[in-house]
Amino acid sequence: MNKTSRDGFTSTFGVLLATLGSAVGLGNIWKFPSLTGMNGGAGFLLVYLLATLLIGLPVMIVETMLGRAARANAITTFERVAPRGQWWWQIIGWMGFLAALFIMSFYSEVAGWVYAYVFKAAAGAISTTDPKAAGATFGALVSNPVTSLVWQWVVLGLTGSIIMLGVAKGIEAVARKLMPLLFILLLVLCVRSLTLPGGAVPGLTFLFSPDLAKITPAVILTALGLAFFKLSIGMGCMLTYGSYFRDDQNIPATATRVMLADLSVSLLAGIAIFPAVFAFGFEPAAGPSLVFMTIPAVFTSMPGGTVFMTIFFVLTAVASVGAILSLLEVPVAILSERFGCGRKRASLYTILAIALVGAPAALSQSLTAETKIFGMNPFDLYDFLSSNVMLPLGGILICLFAGWVYGLPQLQKQLGNDGKLPNGVLVRAVFFLVRYVSPLLIGIVLLHGLKVF
Ligand code: PHE
């Protein structure tokens, strides 16, 4: 309960980098291209952009703000900021706790594939531009139950140890160093992909020229889910990070910068991948395997490919660590602050829970492939439930709380840093969005997308 005894970020620039470290991850390199490919390309991208601006950004701002105002984990925050007796707002934190476990259950598996690809790349085992060969290598990895589980455990063991070191030391240090390199490597990939014969025109058309007929309610829900997933919002993660923010941090500016930087990484990944998809004859709707087949193909067709490919997968693995640490922070902060079990034990319990819940997801291409719930294997189910249901639901509740309970005067005080920053039009715009626009839009998209109507 003592504010000064909590760990925190040590510089405003460090805050920006750590928040960026949470946002940028497999969501950019893996999820964004796969979903864009599966949902018809440019139309999906357009909806995703709108969802990010109208819903993602305002939710990110108020979520971070609530965490900083309360300086506590996702559950305790609502104990502190909600009026007496309105205990139900704490449901946001509990749902976030669960969402973190579900997301980690499949995220750790995908990170495991990335780790495995580091070694395959170094050994030259994935240097091919042939869709069949690339698909076979990926298929062999994910359909082996033993390697699937072991890679997931490696990821959990590594990230679990990092989080035991504590917020400032662990998270900042990792987030700070390597992101710019990944960005540069993506740029190089884009150049190569765009200059592949027969790739640029169909690739860029697919990515940027929308076919409105392809935008169905299900596509819209998926795009909304991606917007939440990308910005790490709707599940208490930005709230928890906000609780470590400095008092003088400009929250709206930080959130906007993170959103823009995150978006550019995703777009670069898209531009690196889709021209190559068409140049080499990959299937844009291949799903989760898309990136693991296409990226190696682009590297294979450039000088020094093996080395760069290895570096690329190492950097992607590092990017995934930043995101995973922020995911783990949600349950770890809750367990250690509410149940007084100490950071080390809280981390251990969290990792063990994920290993348990995550095993069926890791085995989704082997032992549990036929275990279908709502027609989905465990991997897809965890992803769908968390990204497309729990995060948007959490988002609605956060908006309703900020817009109707917390109110404009508090918003002006918090986002204006107690009068030290301007708190006029922009804060009013955020207030208007979270009070009316975002909850209404999320509600409509959820009801339509889940076929409740
Ligand atoms: N934003 C991260 C990514 O895109 C994933 C994430 C989701 C992290 C939710 C934290 C919370 O990879």
Name the beta content range: under 5%
Spatial gap, N to C terminus: 45 Å
Using the CA coordinates, give the radius of gyration: 21 Å
Count of DSSP H/I helices: 17
Average residue-wise pLDDT: 93
Largest sheet entry: none
The CATH topology annotation reads as Hydantoin permease
Distinct bound molecules: phenylalanine
Proportion in helices: over 70%
Q: How would you sum up the global shape?
A: globular
Number of domains: 1
Order of helices and strands: HHHHHHHHHHHHHHHHH
Task: Using brief descriptors, characterize the structure shown.
single chain; 453 residues; mainly alpha; Hydantoin permease; binds phenylalanine
Characterize the structure shown:
There is one protein chain. This protein is mainly alpha-helical. It has one domain: Hydantoin permease, CATH 1.10.4160. Helices cover 75% and strands 0% of the residues. It has 17 helices and no strands. The mean pLDDT is 93. Bound molecules: phenylalanine. Phenylalanine binds at residues 22-23, 25-28, 103, 229-230, 232, 235, 237, 323, 326-327.
Q: What's this entry about, in short?
A:
By secondary structure, the chain is an all-alpha fold.
